[in-house]
Fold:
Amino acid sequence: MYRTLKSSGIYAQISPTPRELSVCCGVSLLVHGEDVDAIKAISSEKGLNYLSVDGLNNTFDNTRHKYG
Structure:
């Protein structure tokens, strides 16, 4: 799904699933809320599956968890 969204010009970032959404470890795609309808349409068109679409009302800090 990540590659399909990126090639469609939609922002997506691979990230661990936030603990607020799942107690199990997993992988999520971080996307902009305004792109959700387009992402669902692309997923349906391309036959891509996802478990759920959930939102968090917090700001994203892209400097967190960068190691170097």
Remarks:
- The longest helix spans residues 36-46.
